[in-house]
Amino acid sequence: MCLHYFFSLIYYILKRQIVRTELRIHCKCRTIVYKAPGQATGKIIEATAAAGNWQDGAALIANDQGHSFATALQHVVRENQNVKFLAYNNAPPGVPSIKTKSNSKGVIILSTTTDSAAWIVHTVPGFPAAKTGYNWPLAENARGHLLICLTILESQINAIAASLLLVQPLIHYNDIPKTETAAMPYFNKLAEGKIPTLPPFTSRQTIRTQNDAAPVIVHIYSKSESSKYGEHELIFHSSFRTVFSKLFHAIAPLRVYVENYHDFLEIYKKVIVKALKKTIKVWSRRDSKLKGDCRVSQRHIRLIKSPAVVVDHNTNLEADITNWAVSDPGNIFCHIDKPYFKNQTREPAMAICIDNINIFTRFDAIAAQLED
To answer: Which InterPro entries match (predicted)?
Structure first.
């Protein structure tokens, strides 16, 4: 039986959840909270829930108890000798005005006593602060946010790290001992702050949730920045991309693809659409330079109209800082860490794409109205 879901209410967890005594931060199913602008609570999707509507979060998201998001982070914001984690955020807690090309925010958590880990991905700046108590930034209630949790086996962490390595996240806390990651070369490079020295390339990884009965498949697409590489170097390495890909695939378990300069540019069209081979409908802030793109049959980019509605919570692109997309046809939902701006074409970026009909259906309903 699946453990109860990450963002469900505390009383519901206590009623239905089978809790591990060693580590109590994990769910075994994919869960997403969408907090609309101006709201103090969120709407909840559970990946394994039967088709239906969003659940309401009964407790304020700023509360340090009464909702399972705070419960799941309890070993991040407080001390626990059996739980270690790495936290990254381009706007780290208590550090103003950091300049970085990354926009990724999240926490990788693992237990030192069981083969159990979690990956939390979110959009909230300055949050969570390590081991200083649960402290939701109240100013962020004015904006729209996504909070995502994925429970995995520890062996999946290396694939996540391989994707993160390309986007160069700003790591502000890490106490995961090397004894836990000795067989994870990409994680160790990430933790040590190493920057990839290869020319621009994309990484495609696939991981699964820790649920033997019905694991949720998650594809991670990331691309490195391009501005620091010269044009001649790009052309040179592009000529050998096929040979390199075959060689790398033969010596490493992770799939990394070197792309040519033009394919590398844009995360939405040149990475996500190319990988999914489907049209995507995009909810994101946008500039006047990147438009919807319908030039290739069945591989379009359609922009979702603003404002929109999450059941009875209104959202709009002026206040909502989330970037997400759904495939057409389904069943894929993607969270992207960069908005649909022209400048992201030369910056690192990552997309986390979840293949799940229940999550897809909820977000596809928000995407009902499209721009021409």
So the answer is: DNase_II
